[in-house]
Amino acid sequence: MRALVISGGGSKGAFAGGVAQYLMENQGRKYDMFLGTSTGSLLVNHLALGDIGKLYDVFTNVQQHDIFSISPFVQRKKGDREYVSIDFVNSLWQFIRRKRTFGESKALRRHIKRNFTEEEYNRIKETKEDVVVTVSNLSMNRVEYKSIKDYSYEEYCTWVWISCNYIPFMSLATVDGYEYADGGLGCVIPIREAIIRGATEIDAIVLEAEQMERSKVLGKNPFSLMLNLFGHLLDQVEKNDIVIGKLAAKNRGVKLNLYYTPTSLTENSLIFSKRLMTKWWEQGYEYAQNKHE
Question: Which stretches are transmembrane (predicted)?
């Protein structure tokens, strides 16, 4: 059974879209199972449908207002570099309202339902072995994997949304009395889970460079420094996930193919720029093509 696994990575998911397009259209890869964390959970549903054209249009055209109902960021540009700084007004408003996060991402939930219909949900359940998204149960301090088989359309869309909620910058969700957030807080790339669920060959797309080729520029204020810190912690989680995945694959005789980004694509993956995401999609396609040629 062949599985496609996609890591978290915010707007860098466009790169994964390009890699997946090459594997599915040019290499003829047919996957039985799809697993994703955070931005990976947004990609796997359309990939399971085989609707890469729609995925490209939806993903490369997403904007900040499609993600954030209350954005904690102000997007700025200096030369060719795009970056974010804190939106003091929105963050202060969140504190006044006694909210525990700097921003809210309820717009993303509406965006998911608008672009992933109940008819598409039913088609996946009928034609694919499984589609699984990763979430973090903060109340119980554990990672959970939510299968499309086990939930209604409304419930499944909620889990996809929760998988993307990168706190404390996005919404903190409550389900059945438990508080949940981004799956990447516990498992950035669920390779081992794919093996446990029966995968015998895995294509895993890691939205980070295999080796850091340059030093990072740390933030100049507490807010941007916090973004850097979270990024560092998630990088360590991702490395552990890959090591554990490699060991599990070796022990069970599973063929594991890893696809990394050739360079560090962005300093902040919460920037959603059509220009950048279109470029990254093309880079992902070309990277996969060069890797196979």
Answer: none
Torsion angles phi and psi, residue 152, rounded to 5 = -70, 170
Catalytic residues: 38, 182
Q: List the helix and strand counts (H, then E) for the chain.
A: 11, 10
- Distance CA(194)–CA(142), nearest Å, equals 17
Q: What is the separation, in whole angstroms, between the first and last Cα of the chain?
A: 24
Query: What is the pTM (predicted TM-score) of this model?
Result: 0.91
Cβ contact 232:223 at 8 Å: no
Q: What is the DSSP string of 133-186?
A: EEEEETTTTEEEEEEGGGS-HHHHHHHHHHHT--TTTS--EEETTEEEEEGGGT
Q: What is the DSSP string of 8-42?
A: --GGGHHHHHHHHHIIIIIS----SEEEEETHHHH
Biggest distance spanned by C-alpha atoms of the chain: 56
Cβ-count burial of 235 within 10 angstroms (0-12 exposed, 13-18 middle, 19+ buried)?
A: middle
Which residues, including other chains, have CB under 8 Å from residue 79's CB and lie 6 or more apart? none
The Cα 64–Cα 48 span in angstroms is 26
Tokens of 41: 């959970």
The one-digit pLDDT tens for each residue of the chain (293 residues) are 999 999 999 999 999 999 999 999 999 999 999 999 999 999 999 999 999 999 999 999 998 889 998 888 777 666 666 666 777 788 788 888 888 888 899 999 999 999 999 999 999 999 999 999 999 999 999 999 999 999 999 999 999 999 999 988 899 999 999 999 999 999 999 999 999 999 999 999 999 887 655 566 565 667 777 777 877 788 889 999 999 999 999 999 999 999 999 888 877 787 788 888 999 999 999 999 999 88
- Structure tokens of 268? 């902040």
